[in-house]
Amino acid sequence: MFAQKTVWLCLTLLSICCAATGQILFKMGVRSMSFSIGKLGSIGAIAKTLANPYVASGLAFFAVGTILWLAVISGKQLSSVYPMVSLGYILITVASIALFGDSISLFKALGMIFILTGVLLINTQPNDERPVSAACGARVFASAPDTPHACDNNPLAARSAQSER
Asked: DSSP of 75-128, one letter per residue?
């Protein structure tokens, strides 16, 4: 059980890191070519932008991150794992400070703390509570893990519950 949760967590974090790396590479690419939005008026300019090694590498990281993300959401509840994507904001902020000299304000720092706190709250669940399907869709918490529920015969609800275990 612990090993399976660790694999899911690692896949999720690796996907987020790939997306954040892609963003950093995009920024490096547009900086290296004096990019401006007005230069995207022609197919040649778009091709030149996409051929930039940084931009092309960023796209490759996004592709890998997307494949990893598909693996993650195939076995987990989207409502649980998607908030973790916001960790990318923290990674990008820290990398931008280190690589591009971006500044950090008190409000940015507090925002990153709130993001981290929110992700932890969403993905932390006391051991005595387990999610069960309610009204065959919404999630509620029950303290008795063996209590049958009206939606337990619903194949979609059962599949979702199994993927969480």
From this structure: HS-HHHHGGGGGHHHHHHHHHHHHHH-----HHHHHHHHHHHHHHHHHH---TT
Expressed as residue numbers, the domain containing 102 is 2-107
Domain count, the chain: 2
Q: Do residues 84 and 159 share a domain?
A: no
61: β partners: none
**Residue 13 CA to its chain's centroid (Å):** 7
* Interacting residues of 4 by C-beta distance below 8 A, sequence separation 6+: none
**CA distance linking residue 76 with residue 123, whole number of Å:** 12
Rounded to two decimals, what is the model's pTM? Answer: 0.71
Q: Mean pLDDT highest for which of 26-30, 55-59, 124-128?
A: 55-59
Is residue 74 in a domain? yes
Q: Round to whole Å and give the CA distance between 144 and 67.
A: 36
pLDDT digits (tens, 9 = 90+) for 42-95: 788 888 889 999 999 999 999 999 999 999 999 888 988 999 999 999 999 999
Rounded CA-CA distance 30/35 in Å is 5
